[in-house]
TrEMBL record:
This is Stalk domain-containing protein. Residues 40-91 form the Copper amine oxidase-like N-terminal domain. Keywords: Signal. Residues 1-36 form the signal peptide.
Length: 592
């Protein structure tokens, strides 16, 4: 076994093959971090040919668009691109590039090796790509350079750079190196920190769960630890070739997570699902959305009801000061009335209108009930009060109430500081309809449908006013009939039969949409956020909701305030996934 001194002498005798970083790493007893494709041997070998756009890294063919060139009798290679394939870092300071011992100033077309100026012509700009003589780059990297018999083929062999022994190391593997188009790539990450510090950030470049187009792809990972130290990039090359095993649609039906988007340009041609109305307990909706942006304190809407009722208020503060939305209940009976909150969802304050509807629905589906209030005859109590809304911010509240007798419900916008009392409400004006939005009392705020899946794929349209008619009502403040475009606040309860072995997706038809839906699949119940991130906006990019296990699937959907209607539910057949029937037969369930 060699002593440390003997090893050091060997290193110093062969300086062109071993970098200073490697020497430091050996003295510290730390293995150097190699370029990903050369991790095992700690070195990279690059073979290039003049004017050829394919290079070979450790024997693996790799695209090399910036081909080597013969200029002025010397062979020049692209600086950044060649260093990258060798796994050598390129740093840039004040416009100067440094690779190993080589410094290049592209602006002055000047190069310096260990501080010594190099001959004129050592730096050439070719179409915005910086080229340097291959021998100069080899000297700068302490790399071996050999020239083939044809004089055009060059091979560079360079040892990997040493690393900070306190820095984390990025590592990952893929289950294969060559994939078919549409085949799932399984990544296993095993990055680590030498001292066991937490890895606090991961930065992937080029990572995709699937590649649909043939070609060669490079995937890189860089990690950061809790000390703020960053690893060197770690890369692997993936080759995609052969016959496709999945299309983007069939791949999504296998692997997409609830809330993920996927492409389906054919969905508008799918037949409508067969539906039948179901008899369910129904109740009215009291809807306050006009004036949507009140500019003074006043009464927004008012009506009296008994029994079960849904309240939906959607307003933006147009006052010049802070304001709050209040809902007051007044007992109209001669005896006490109990008023119980069954469910409530709320969003306030926010300037992002699509958030108003989505957060309210997520809150609503998560609600387990609220207080029960007892109102003496003629008594007025608040049943809702929003947080303070600064000018321009909005509120959305949806609340299910059950009253044991008749109560008057009043929506008010009050400037901050005004108390929400019956006396104040009596002195406020009734604010006029804004002519753009709806308000009113609408019967039949629950729409029950039995959906029979006899043909797949199939679609179910919601909120278009034609296939799915708008509910009608009356503005009790003016007596004018109202048509609730979009059916905001209507709760759809869908009983889907023949659902086993299907996937359900959601397609926005009118533009931006952010909402939620509750799914009951046998014993499993879950609320799905639509979409999981961002806004659903592309009509031909539905969002996956669920893969169904039971023959009957129950879906609860309320069109989201602040979003655009109509929307469609799409039902796809997924029987046979993973069996090879029409899906390529390469099902991969494991994804660490």
């Amino acid at each position: 076994m060699f002593s440390q001194e003997g090893l050091l002498r060997t290193v110093l005798l062969d300086r062109r093959r071993r970098s200073r970083a490697l020497l430091t790493a050996l003295l510290l007893g730390v293995s150097p971090l190699a370029h990903a494709q050369a991790a095992a041997q700690g070195a990279a070998q690059l073979t290039v040919t003049t004017d050829q756009t394919v290079a070979y890294v450790n024997g693996v063919a790799t695209p090399f668009p910036a081909a080597p060139r013969l200029i002025g009798g010397r062979t020049l290679v692209p600086l950044r691109e060649t260093a990258a394939l060798l796994g050598q870092p390129v740093t840039e300071v004040a416009g100067q590039l440094q690779v190993g011992r080589l410094n290049v100033d592209p602006g002055r077309a000047a190069a310096f090796l260990s501080g010594a100026a190099q001959p004129s012509g050592s730096v050439v700009d070719v179409g915005g790509v910086v080229y340097v003589p291959v021998r100069l780059l080899a000297d700068g990297l302490n790399a071996n350079l050999s020239v083939g018999a044809d004089g055009r083929t060059l091979t560079l062999s360079a040892l990997a750079q040493g690393v900070n022994p306190l820095a984390p190391q990025a590592r990952f593997a893929t289950d294969k190196t060559t994939y078919a188009p549409g085949e799932r790539v399984v990544y296993t990450e095993y990055a680590f920190d030498p001292d066991g510090a937490d890895l606090t950030a991961r930065r992937w470049t080029g990572r995709q769960e699937v590649f649909f187009q043939p070609g060669t792809y490079t995937v890189s990972l860089q990690v950061t630890n809790s000390r703020g130290l960053q690893s060197a990039p770690f890369s692997r090359t993936i080759r995609v070739e052969g016959q496709a095993v999945d299309t983007p649609l069939t791949y999504a039906l296998r692997y997409a997570e609830p809330g993920d988007r996927f492409p389906d340009p054919q969905l508008r041609a799918y037949p409508l699902a067969v539906t039948q109305p179901t008899s369910r307990e129904n109740h009215p909706l009291i809807f306050s959305n006009s004036p949507e942006v009140p500019t003074q304190s006043g009464i927004l809407y008012q009506d009296s009801v008994s029994g079960r009722v849904r309240l939906l208020g959607y307003h933006l503060n147009g006052l010049r000061a802070g304001a709050r939305l209040h809902i007051l209940a007044r007992n109209l009976e001669g005896g006490p009335v109990e008023l119980r909150t069954e469910r409530r969802g709320e969003t306030a304050p926010t300037r992002i209108e699509t958030l108003l509807g989505q957060v309210t629905l997520l809150d609503y589906f998560a609600s387990t009930g609220g207080p029960t209030l007892t109102l003496p005859p003629g008594e007025t109590v608040p049943v809702y009060a929003s947080p303070t809304l600064s000018p321009g911010t909005g509120v959305n509240v949806m609340q299910d109430l059950v009253a044991s007798g008749r109560v008057e419900l009043t929506f008010l916008m009050l400037e901050e500081g005004l108390p929400a009392t019956a006396q104040v409400a009596q002195q406020l004006p009734y604010l006029p309809h804004d002519g753009k939005h709806q308000r009113g009392t609408f019967e039949n705020a629950v729409r029950g449908l039995r959906v029979n899946l006899t043909t797949l794929p199939a679609r179910l349209v919601i909120g278009d006013g034609q296939v799915d008619p708008a509910i009608t009502g009356v503005d009790k403040l003016t007596g004018q009939p109202q048509r609730l475009l979009g059916n905001y606040g209507v709760r759809y309860h869908l009983e889907v039969y023949g659902a086993g072995g299907t996937a359900v997706a959601f397609s926005p038809r009118g533009g931006l949409y952010r909402g939620a839906m509750h799914v009951q699949d046998g014993p499993v119940g879950q609320t799905i956020k639509l979409p999981r991130t961002g806004n659903a906006i592309e009509p031909d990019q539905p969002v996956l909701l669920w893969r169904t296990q039971s023959d009957r699937l129950d879906l609860d959907l309320v069109p989201a305030s602040g979003s655009n209607l109509p929307v469609s539910l799409i039902f796809y057949k997924t029987n046979g996934l993973g069996t090879g029937t029409g899906y390529g037969g390469l099902f991969k369930p494991y994804q660490p």
